[in-house]
Amino acid sequence: MTDIGVDDETERKSLKPAVDPGEARRVLLELYGLEAKEVSPLDSYDDNNFKVVVGHTSEDATAMHTTVYTLKIHNGVESSNLAFIEAQNAMLAHLKAKCKQYTFPAPVASKAGNLIETAALAVKEGAVRPLAVRLLTWVEGTLLTHCSNTDPALLEKVGEMAAKVNTALADFDHPALRRHHAWDLANAAQLQRYLPYMDDADRRSLVESVLAAFAAEVLPAAATLRSACIHSDLNDANIVVSADGAAVVGAIDFGDAVRSWLVAEPAIAMAYAMLSPAARATGDALGAAAAALAGYARALPLFPAETMHLRTLVAARLCASAALGAHALRRDPANAAYLSLHQAPAWAALALLWRGAAAVHTRALWEKASMGVPLRTLLRVSQPGRKRALSADGGDGSSGGGGDRRPPRAVTFVTGNAKKLEEVRKILGASLPFELVSAKVDLPELQGEPADIAREKCRIAAEQTGGAVMVEDTGLCFAALQGLPGPYIKWFLDKCGHDGLNRMLAGFADKSAYAQCIFAFCEGPGRDVLLFEGRTYGRVVPARGPPDFGWDPVFEPEGGGGETYAEMAKDEKNKISHRFRALDKLRSHLLSLHDTSNGSAAVEAAACDASAQPAPAKRPAQAAAAAAVAPPAPAAAAAPITAITFVTGNAKKLEEVRRILGASLPFELTSAKVNLPELQGEPADIAREKCRIATERTGGAVMVEDTGLCFTALQGLPGPYSKWFLDKCGHDGLNSMLQGFDDDSAYAQCTFAFCAGLGQQVHIFDGRTAGRVVPARGPPDFGWDPIFEPEGRGQTYAEMAKEEKNKISHRFRALDQLRQYLIENAEAVRTQMEAAR
């Protein structure tokens, strides 16, 4: 067999700690001041784990008691990335606070007060290296793999725990979890590289078939799958149950944690449910997976766009267990007992799922599990050889079949705000012929015209939920600024406050404005998006009324009796509000659908279509916006291994950047026009996210640029939104925006983001040139250059010679930092580029 080369998984095996119990005892004493009574090695994939029992004397010295810990010595790969270990600690702390029903390990501080320590220890390859060390509290109970309870109902509880963990982590994120990881289910297509470790040709063919389906069906629909921080390895060796097997206690080993597709969590739990003691005892692996899914979906419902891919995702995880297990076994034969734990059952389960059971049977079974069909009904029909089949109503075709909870005829309002849902329900009224439910869906904050923003967000939401959706976009629009700040109002409110919003209009005679709300409605994936706009006209005034509800205190609507939104009674405001006007139009549309007998049928048909067909192909602009949620897998890059792609379609800009970077750059600079979303946010965050998307879309090393003109008086705004203000207000309008402030200073900002390739860190290089905003001077044909005068120059950017401007420009300053980084770290960057390829 030919070795496929050094990669992350291979390096983990070479740098696995080689620490014996005696050395572990010494580390425990030196770092934590604890003397162990017992030290026992534990099974581990890449690390060295030890169960340590420490004795303590009571305060009155009359009794002894013991405390059990896990001493974890991390492999050399993770030890060089302490940020990821910190992310694990942060995730555990978050779960301790938000998921108190279950128990998880907790890091224990060392004598020095650190939750992560480092010690010079031996690794498998023979060298001594600095390795990260953690001491964790012990989770008392029995591992599921050793549990004597073989009732599938226990797997249902495992699924429920997985869902509650994901629910608790919904508001958790950590940059170190946005990493490339071989075990991440989203990277299943890359398992191809481990096929040479499989000696059996038939097994290789089986895995190749699954990976082909994954590439053809799942990856094109990646933008429809919700993303989240997940455990990513809820197998039977990481799930702790009570001694009697009646309850799930918690989960351990967060070493595979990653930000990935949310649906990966139940898919992984289902894959290992197929290998569980319950599956082996009953001979019903598909039913075991259905039990785990039923428990998960009951606590955290999945979208149809997610459940339609479960069969392929579960199969892909079984492929990962088989392929990566074969690789690990070849690299670490001394650990064969642990590494073989899932090998044989994984192959058997994969053969059953992909070749033995009819795909239509498996999909129907798991679809019903996700809809709440009782477990006893699922288990009666789960084995492929049985004659009874699932009927359309969810029963098992027999007279004694269990009942079914049919999915509601619902429209999903995309919001995580319970009060907003309540207000919308109140405005729509009880006559609505559909159930209105809500869901918190991660949607990109886009730049653009309000109607375009609402339309695109609704399209993405429909694909993510797989059914009928409605989304809302609101703004406060100043007539003097041609409808701005509009969709960017929250940024101006956050940075400038109510007083700042008033001052922005001091230089204009016109203080009129309108509150705008656009509801976008879509019956399902691939359907047209309909827009319903509501406007309430009024004017901007000094703040009056309670200050705790956005910009309400500064907007005085016409017909509001001289009161601001904030001063009005809620019922009175709802009668004239922009939200009411938009929802009234939407309600009329929904009622008309019902009256023509197309309403609920259309909604349900869309949901059925979404669960039976892959997502429709997206237009380039749509795909770019959707990429901000969950980008599809990259296409193969044509650029040389040492090339960096500057994402631009502007040949003159490429020429300017090449000139600034100079000939000494140790990399070739190419360019490509890549459709990237225009995002809202802080400049560094925008550049970082666009760079991440560009990396995934090109598959190689990239650099992207984001620029803006930032007014000090507006706390850095308009910044990334400068082009919209320039287009609508012109040079004079930008000057007038500052007349209400004493400070006319500003800075030109350029943010370059660079990434060496997939899974590599995004580096930010920020260049700023300080100056002030002045009446326009110089040629008017290059953006906002005519109104920006750099400090000490006496000329605007537009008046300066090109060579002189380039010496001090914000772009030059950012690129100079990038150039220095690439030169000083050339070898490391090349290594990262090669690893990413």
Automatic annotation (TrEMBL):
Keyword terms: Cytoplasm, Hydrolase, Magnesium, Manganese, Metal-binding, Nucleotide metabolism, Nucleotide-binding
Which cofactors go with this protein? Mg(2+); Mn(2+)
Enzyme Commission code(s) on record: 3.6.1.66
Chief site of localization: cytoplasm
Matching InterPro entries: Aminoglycoside_PTrfase (IPR002575), ITPase (IPR027502), ITPase-like_fam (IPR029001), Kinase-like_dom_sf (IPR011009), RdgB/HAM1 (IPR002637)
Identification of the protein by name: Inosine triphosphate pyrophosphatase
Write down the superkingdom of origin.
Answer: Eukaryota
Q: Where does this protein hold Mg(2+)? A: 445, 473, 678, 706
What the protein does?
Pyrophosphatase that hydrolyzes the non-canonical purine nucleotides inosine triphosphate (ITP), deoxyinosine triphosphate (dITP) as well as 2'-deoxy-N-6-hydroxylaminopurine triphosphate (dHAPTP) and xanthosine 5'-triphosphate (XTP) to their respective monophosphate derivatives. The enzyme does not distinguish between the deoxy- and ribose forms. Probably excludes non-canonical purines from RNA and DNA precursor pools, thus preventing their incorporation into RNA and DNA and avoiding chromosomal lesions. Pyrophosphatase that hydrolyzes non-canonical purine nucleotides such as inosine triphosphate (ITP), deoxyinosine triphosphate (dITP) or xanthosine 5'-triphosphate (XTP) to their respective monophosphate derivatives. The enzyme does not distinguish between the deoxy- and ribose forms. Probably excludes non-canonical purines from RNA and DNA precursor pools, thus preventing their incorporation into RNA and DNA and avoiding chromosomal lesions.
Q: Which PANTHER family match?
A: INOSINE TRIPHOSPHATE PYROPHOSPHATASE, INOSINE TRIPHOSPHATE PYROPHOSPHATASE/HAM1 PROTEIN
Q: Name one GO biological process term.
A: nucleotide metabolic process
Q: Where in the cell is it found?
A: Cytoplasm
Give Gene Ontology CC terms: cytoplasm
The Aminoglycoside phosphotransferase domain extends over: 68-300
**Subunit and interaction comment:** Homodimer.
Q: Where is this region: Disordered?
A: 386-409
> Does the UniProt entry include the keyword Magnesium?
yes
Which positions in this protein are listed as binding ITP? Answer: 415-420, 457, 473-474, 549-552, 573, 578-579, 648-653, 690, 706-707, 782-785, 805, 810-811
The similarity comment for this entry is: Belongs to the HAM1 NTPase family.
Q: Which organism is it from?
A: Tribonema minus
Quickly give the catalysed reaction.
Answer: ITP + H2O = IMP + diphosphate + H(+); N(6)-hydroxy-dATP + H2O = N(6)-hydroxy-dAMP + diphosphate + H(+); dITP + H2O = dIMP + diphosphate + H(+); XTP + H2O = XMP + diphosphate + H(+)
